[in-house]
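Shipment paperwork, digital attachment
Item: protein structure file
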Amino acid sequence: MRRRLARPFGHTVSSARILSLLMGLAVLAMLYQRAKEPQFWRWMTNESRADAEDEQSKSTSPVGGLKSSGSVANTIENIVPGPNETDPDELANLRSNLKSIQDRQPLQPHEMPAYWRLLGWSRTRPFAELEKGALRDVPYSHLWDEPDLYRGQPMRLKLHVRRVLAYDTKENPLGLKKVFEVYGFTDNSLSFPFIVILPEKPAGLPIGTDVEGEIVFVGYFVKWMGYRAFDKKKDAPLLVGRARPVVRSAGAGQSGGWELAFLTLVGGVFALTFLGWFSLRMLRRPRSATAGANVIAPEQLPDNWMANTTAEARRESLPSVSDFVTATPLIPATSTVDAPVANPATPPASAITT
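Attachment content:
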Protein backbone atom coordinates (compact mmCIF):
# COMPACT_ATOMS: atom_id res chain seq x y z
CA MET A 1 0.00 0.00 0.00
CA ARG A 2 1.45 3.34 -1.03
CA ARG A 3 1.56 6.00 1.64
CA ARG A 4 0.93 9.69 0.97
CA LEU A 5 3.18 12.25 2.61
CA ALA A 6 1.46 15.46 3.75
CA ARG A 7 3.35 18.53 2.64
CA PRO A 8 3.18 21.53 5.05
CA PHE A 9 2.87 23.98 2.14
CA GLY A 10 1.16 22.63 -0.90
CA HIS A 11 -2.11 21.31 -2.27
CA THR A 12 -2.73 19.25 0.89
CA VAL A 13 -3.30 22.39 3.03
CA SER A 14 -7.04 23.02 3.34
CA SER A 15 -8.67 26.40 2.87
CA ALA A 16 -9.90 26.33 6.47
CA ARG A 17 -6.32 26.31 7.77
CA ILE A 18 -5.37 29.23 5.55
CA LEU A 19 -8.42 31.18 6.76
CA SER A 20 -7.54 30.44 10.40
CA LEU A 21 -3.98 31.64 9.81
CA LEU A 22 -5.19 34.91 8.28
CA MET A 23 -7.65 35.47 11.13
CA GLY A 24 -4.93 34.89 13.70
CA LEU A 25 -2.65 37.40 12.01
CA ALA A 26 -5.46 39.96 11.94
CA VAL A 27 -6.13 39.53 15.66
CA LEU A 28 -2.45 39.89 16.49
CA ALA A 29 -2.24 43.07 14.42
CA MET A 30 -5.26 44.55 16.18
CA LEU A 31 -3.90 43.68 19.63
CA TYR A 32 -0.59 45.26 18.69
CA GLN A 33 -2.31 48.48 17.69
CA ARG A 34 -4.30 48.56 20.94
CA ALA A 35 -1.24 47.79 23.07
CA LYS A 36 0.48 50.90 21.74
CA GLU A 37 -2.22 53.12 23.27
CA PRO A 38 -1.49 54.34 26.84
CA GLN A 39 -5.15 53.87 27.82
CA PHE A 40 -4.82 50.14 27.21
CA TRP A 41 -2.51 49.78 30.24
CA ARG A 42 -4.36 52.06 32.69
CA TRP A 43 -6.11 49.07 34.29
CA MET A 44 -2.77 48.34 36.03
CA THR A 45 -3.02 51.68 37.87
CA ASN A 46 -6.73 51.29 38.70
CA GLU A 47 -7.61 54.20 36.39
CA SER A 48 -10.36 53.80 33.86
CA ARG A 49 -10.14 54.88 30.26
CA ALA A 50 -12.96 57.37 30.68
CA ASP A 51 -11.12 59.06 33.55
CA ALA A 52 -7.96 59.37 31.46
CA GLU A 53 -9.82 60.88 28.53
CA ASP A 54 -11.67 63.19 30.89
CA GLU A 55 -8.43 64.45 32.45
CA GLN A 56 -6.86 64.92 29.02
CA SER A 57 -9.86 66.90 27.79
CA LYS A 58 -9.77 69.08 30.91
CA SER A 59 -6.11 69.88 30.44
CA THR A 60 -6.61 70.87 26.79
CA SER A 61 -9.82 72.89 27.30
CA PRO A 62 -9.64 76.61 26.51
CA VAL A 63 -9.36 79.19 29.25
CA GLY A 64 -12.61 80.70 30.46
CA GLY A 65 -14.53 77.57 31.40
CA LEU A 66 -15.80 76.67 27.92
CA LYS A 67 -15.53 72.98 27.12
CA SER A 68 -16.77 71.05 24.13
CA SER A 69 -17.41 67.30 23.95
CA GLY A 70 -18.83 66.22 20.63
CA SER A 71 -22.39 67.47 20.52
CA VAL A 72 -22.41 68.47 24.20
CA ALA A 73 -21.05 71.88 25.09
CA ASN A 74 -20.74 73.06 28.66
CA THR A 75 -21.52 76.65 29.53
CA ILE A 76 -19.44 78.96 31.67
CA GLU A 77 -19.47 78.05 35.35
CA ASN A 78 -21.85 79.99 37.52
CA ILE A 79 -19.66 81.11 40.44
CA VAL A 80 -21.46 82.83 43.34
CA PRO A 81 -19.12 84.76 45.66
CA GLY A 82 -19.57 83.99 49.32
CA PRO A 83 -18.00 82.46 52.41
CA ASN A 84 -16.80 78.87 52.49
CA GLU A 85 -14.73 76.60 54.74
CA THR A 86 -11.74 78.93 54.44
CA ASP A 87 -13.59 81.38 56.73
CA PRO A 88 -13.13 80.37 60.42
CA ASP A 89 -16.52 81.80 61.45
CA GLU A 90 -18.30 79.95 58.67
CA LEU A 91 -16.55 76.73 59.63
CA ALA A 92 -17.58 77.17 63.27
CA ASN A 93 -21.22 77.71 62.26
CA LEU A 94 -21.15 74.54 60.19
CA ARG A 95 -19.87 72.47 63.11
CA SER A 96 -22.74 73.79 65.19
CA ASN A 97 -25.24 72.84 62.46
CA LEU A 98 -23.82 69.32 62.07
CA LYS A 99 -24.60 68.47 65.71
CA SER A 100 -28.26 68.05 64.85
CA ILE A 101 -27.65 65.62 61.96
CA GLN A 102 -29.23 62.16 62.41
CA ASP A 103 -28.04 59.38 60.13
CA ARG A 104 -30.27 56.71 58.57
CA GLN A 105 -33.31 58.96 58.83
CA PRO A 106 -35.14 61.08 56.23
CA LEU A 107 -34.00 64.66 55.85
CA GLN A 108 -35.48 66.72 58.70
CA PRO A 109 -36.21 70.50 58.86
CA HIS A 110 -33.64 71.07 61.61
CA GLU A 111 -30.96 69.61 59.29
CA MET A 112 -31.63 72.10 56.48
CA PRO A 113 -29.22 74.85 57.73
CA ALA A 114 -26.24 72.50 57.28
CA TYR A 115 -27.71 71.31 53.98
CA TRP A 116 -27.97 74.83 52.49
CA ARG A 117 -24.65 75.98 53.93
CA LEU A 118 -22.70 73.14 52.30
CA LEU A 119 -24.53 73.58 49.01
CA GLY A 120 -23.64 77.28 49.07
CA TRP A 121 -19.96 76.50 49.68
CA SER A 122 -19.81 74.38 46.52
CA ARG A 123 -20.83 77.40 44.38
CA THR A 124 -18.15 79.81 45.65
CA ARG A 125 -15.17 78.35 43.75
CA PRO A 126 -14.44 77.02 40.26
CA PHE A 127 -15.07 73.35 39.75
CA ALA A 128 -11.40 72.56 39.11
CA GLU A 129 -10.33 74.24 42.33
CA LEU A 130 -12.98 72.45 44.34
CA GLU A 131 -12.03 69.15 42.73
CA LYS A 132 -8.36 69.61 43.48
CA GLY A 133 -8.84 69.64 47.25
CA ALA A 134 -11.51 66.90 47.41
CA LEU A 135 -11.15 63.33 48.64
CA ARG A 136 -11.27 60.91 45.73
CA ASP A 137 -13.39 57.77 45.60
CA VAL A 138 -13.95 57.22 49.31
CA PRO A 139 -14.97 53.57 49.87
CA TYR A 140 -18.64 53.01 50.51
CA SER A 141 -17.94 50.96 53.63
CA HIS A 142 -15.87 53.77 55.17
CA LEU A 143 -18.78 56.16 54.91
CA TRP A 144 -21.05 53.60 56.52
CA ASP A 145 -18.74 52.79 59.41
CA GLU A 146 -17.51 56.32 60.21
CA PRO A 147 -19.96 58.94 58.90
CA ASP A 148 -18.90 61.55 61.50
CA LEU A 149 -15.32 61.40 60.22
CA TYR A 150 -16.32 62.38 56.68
CA ARG A 151 -19.26 64.68 57.43
CA GLY A 152 -18.73 68.09 55.83
CA GLN A 153 -15.66 66.89 53.87
CA PRO A 154 -15.38 67.63 50.11
CA MET A 155 -15.41 64.48 47.96
CA ARG A 156 -15.03 63.62 44.32
CA LEU A 157 -17.08 60.80 42.81
CA LYS A 158 -17.44 59.46 39.31
CA LEU A 159 -21.07 58.36 39.18
CA HIS A 160 -22.90 56.10 36.75
CA VAL A 161 -26.27 57.86 36.85
CA ARG A 162 -29.49 55.87 36.73
CA ARG A 163 -32.08 58.33 38.08
CA VAL A 164 -32.49 62.12 37.90
CA LEU A 165 -35.37 64.00 39.57
CA ALA A 166 -36.13 67.73 39.63
CA TYR A 167 -37.77 69.38 42.68
CA ASP A 168 -39.10 72.88 43.22
CA THR A 169 -37.62 74.31 46.40
CA LYS A 170 -39.15 76.50 49.06
CA GLU A 171 -37.61 79.75 50.21
CA ASN A 172 -33.94 79.20 50.99
CA PRO A 173 -30.81 81.27 51.76
CA LEU A 174 -29.37 80.62 48.30
CA GLY A 175 -32.40 81.83 46.39
CA LEU A 176 -32.65 78.62 44.36
CA LYS A 177 -35.96 77.79 42.66
CA LYS A 178 -35.14 74.21 41.73
CA VAL A 179 -32.68 71.49 42.70
CA PHE A 180 -31.87 68.16 41.03
CA GLU A 181 -31.66 64.87 42.91
CA VAL A 182 -29.36 62.37 41.20
CA TYR A 183 -29.01 58.65 42.01
CA GLY A 184 -25.87 56.92 40.85
CA PHE A 185 -23.25 54.35 41.80
CA THR A 186 -19.48 54.18 41.51
CA ASP A 187 -17.20 51.34 40.45
CA ASN A 188 -16.55 50.57 44.13
CA SER A 189 -20.12 50.82 45.45
CA LEU A 190 -21.46 48.46 42.74
CA SER A 191 -25.27 48.39 43.13
CA PHE A 192 -25.36 50.61 46.24
CA PRO A 193 -26.28 54.16 45.16
CA PHE A 194 -25.17 57.62 46.16
CA ILE A 195 -27.68 60.49 46.32
CA VAL A 196 -26.30 63.87 45.27
CA ILE A 197 -28.12 67.22 45.21
CA LEU A 198 -27.17 69.64 42.43
CA PRO A 199 -28.21 73.28 41.97
CA GLU A 200 -27.70 72.92 38.21
CA LYS A 201 -28.13 69.91 35.94
CA PRO A 202 -25.09 68.98 33.84
CA ALA A 203 -25.50 69.43 30.12
CA GLY A 204 -26.69 66.34 28.30
CA LEU A 205 -27.98 64.57 31.42
CA PRO A 206 -31.66 63.60 30.95
CA ILE A 207 -34.33 63.71 33.64
CA GLY A 208 -36.18 60.49 34.45
CA THR A 209 -36.40 57.42 36.62
CA ASP A 210 -34.47 55.19 34.19
CA VAL A 211 -31.60 57.07 32.56
CA GLU A 212 -28.00 56.35 31.70
CA GLY A 213 -25.20 58.84 32.08
CA GLU A 214 -21.85 59.51 33.70
CA ILE A 215 -20.91 62.58 35.72
CA VAL A 216 -18.03 63.72 37.87
CA PHE A 217 -19.42 65.06 41.15
CA VAL A 218 -17.61 67.25 43.66
CA GLY A 219 -19.38 68.20 46.87
CA TYR A 220 -19.80 67.70 50.60
CA PHE A 221 -21.04 64.69 52.52
CA VAL A 222 -24.08 65.51 54.70
CA LYS A 223 -25.51 62.28 56.13
CA TRP A 224 -26.83 58.80 55.52
CA MET A 225 -30.36 59.55 54.34
CA GLY A 226 -33.15 57.03 54.79
CA TYR A 227 -35.64 56.57 51.96
CA ARG A 228 -38.15 54.02 50.73
CA ALA A 229 -37.88 52.09 47.49
CA PHE A 230 -40.39 49.40 46.52
CA ASP A 231 -41.89 49.56 50.04
CA LYS A 232 -38.50 48.81 51.59
CA LYS A 233 -36.51 51.12 53.81
CA LYS A 234 -33.03 51.84 52.49
CA ASP A 235 -30.13 54.15 53.32
CA ALA A 236 -27.78 56.00 51.00
CA PRO A 237 -25.10 58.66 51.50
CA LEU A 238 -26.40 62.16 50.77
CA LEU A 239 -24.01 64.74 49.29
CA VAL A 240 -24.55 68.28 47.99
CA GLY A 241 -22.41 70.00 45.40
CA ARG A 242 -21.88 70.36 41.67
CA ALA A 243 -21.23 68.06 38.76
CA ARG A 244 -20.08 68.02 35.17
CA PRO A 245 -20.50 65.36 32.50
CA VAL A 246 -17.70 62.91 31.78
CA VAL A 247 -15.92 64.15 28.68
CA ARG A 248 -15.03 61.51 26.12
CA SER A 249 -13.03 61.91 22.96
CA ALA A 250 -14.98 61.68 19.73
CA GLY A 251 -13.10 58.66 18.37
CA ALA A 252 -13.09 56.60 21.57
CA GLY A 253 -16.67 55.38 21.40
CA GLN A 254 -16.58 54.76 17.66
CA SER A 255 -13.36 52.72 17.71
CA GLY A 256 -14.55 50.68 20.66
CA GLY A 257 -17.75 49.72 18.80
CA TRP A 258 -16.16 48.30 15.67
CA GLU A 259 -13.38 46.65 17.65
CA LEU A 260 -15.92 44.81 19.79
CA ALA A 261 -17.85 43.72 16.70
CA PHE A 262 -14.65 42.53 15.02
CA LEU A 263 -13.57 40.58 18.07
CA THR A 264 -17.00 38.96 18.27
CA LEU A 265 -16.84 37.96 14.59
CA VAL A 266 -13.32 36.56 14.88
CA GLY A 267 -14.21 34.66 18.04
CA GLY A 268 -17.26 33.15 16.34
CA VAL A 269 -15.23 32.04 13.33
CA PHE A 270 -12.59 30.44 15.53
CA ALA A 271 -15.22 28.67 17.63
CA LEU A 272 -17.04 27.27 14.58
CA THR A 273 -13.77 26.18 12.97
CA PHE A 274 -12.64 24.38 16.11
CA LEU A 275 -16.00 22.65 16.55
CA GLY A 276 -16.01 21.48 12.91
CA TRP A 277 -12.44 20.21 13.13
CA PHE A 278 -13.10 18.42 16.40
CA SER A 279 -16.29 16.79 15.07
CA LEU A 280 -14.56 15.48 11.95
CA ARG A 281 -11.67 14.17 14.00
CA MET A 282 -13.96 12.28 16.35
CA LEU A 283 -15.94 10.80 13.44
CA ARG A 284 -12.84 9.58 11.61
CA ARG A 285 -10.89 8.34 14.60
CA PRO A 286 -12.59 4.89 15.21
CA ARG A 287 -12.47 3.96 11.51
CA SER A 288 -8.80 4.79 11.05
CA ALA A 289 -7.82 3.10 14.32
CA THR A 290 -9.53 -0.19 13.32
CA ALA A 291 -8.06 -0.20 9.84
CA GLY A 292 -4.56 0.50 11.07
CA ALA A 293 -4.72 -2.30 13.65
CA ASN A 294 -5.76 -5.11 11.23
CA VAL A 295 -3.85 -4.23 8.06
CA ILE A 296 -0.08 -4.72 7.60
CA ALA A 297 1.58 -3.19 4.62
CA PRO A 298 3.59 -5.70 2.48
CA GLU A 299 6.76 -3.66 2.69
CA GLN A 300 6.63 -3.94 6.48
CA LEU A 301 7.03 -7.76 6.39
CA PRO A 302 10.63 -9.13 6.66
CA ASP A 303 12.07 -11.04 3.75
CA ASN A 304 12.77 -14.26 5.77
CA TRP A 305 9.69 -14.28 7.96
CA MET A 306 9.21 -18.06 7.32
CA ALA A 307 12.88 -19.03 7.69
CA ASN A 308 12.88 -19.76 11.43
CA THR A 309 9.73 -21.86 11.46
CA THR A 310 9.68 -25.67 11.41
CA ALA A 311 7.92 -27.81 8.87
CA GLU A 312 5.29 -28.87 11.40
CA ALA A 313 4.53 -25.20 12.26
CA ARG A 314 4.21 -24.37 8.56
CA ARG A 315 1.98 -27.39 8.06
CA GLU A 316 -0.23 -26.35 10.98
CA SER A 317 -0.44 -22.82 9.69
CA LEU A 318 -1.81 -24.02 6.37
CA PRO A 319 -5.57 -24.50 6.28
CA SER A 320 -6.83 -28.13 6.11
CA VAL A 321 -8.77 -29.51 3.22
CA SER A 322 -11.82 -29.93 5.41
CA ASP A 323 -11.99 -26.16 5.77
CA PHE A 324 -12.61 -25.72 2.07
CA VAL A 325 -14.22 -29.07 0.92
CA THR A 326 -17.44 -30.37 2.36
CA ALA A 327 -18.31 -34.04 1.83
CA THR A 328 -21.58 -34.60 0.00
CA PRO A 329 -23.50 -37.96 -0.08
CA LEU A 330 -23.31 -39.91 -3.31
CA ILE A 331 -26.85 -41.20 -2.91
CA PRO A 332 -29.63 -38.77 -2.14
CA ALA A 333 -31.48 -39.19 1.11
CA THR A 334 -34.70 -39.92 -0.67
CA SER A 335 -34.71 -42.45 -3.60
CA THR A 336 -37.45 -43.83 -5.81
CA VAL A 337 -35.78 -47.33 -6.05
CA ASP A 338 -36.61 -49.65 -3.17
CA ALA A 339 -33.80 -51.96 -2.22
CA PRO A 340 -34.73 -55.59 -1.52
CA VAL A 341 -35.11 -56.33 2.13
CA ALA A 342 -33.82 -59.64 3.35
CA ASN A 343 -35.95 -61.76 5.68
CA PRO A 344 -33.99 -62.20 8.85
CA ALA A 345 -35.75 -65.54 9.56
CA THR A 346 -34.60 -67.04 6.32
CA PRO A 347 -31.00 -68.03 6.29
CA PRO A 348 -29.01 -67.00 3.34
CA ALA A 349 -28.86 -69.46 0.51
CA SER A 350 -25.73 -71.43 0.41
CA ALA A 351 -23.59 -71.53 -2.66
CA ILE A 352 -24.40 -74.38 -5.05
CA THR A 353 -21.45 -76.46 -5.71
CA THR A 354 -21.12 -79.09 -8.32
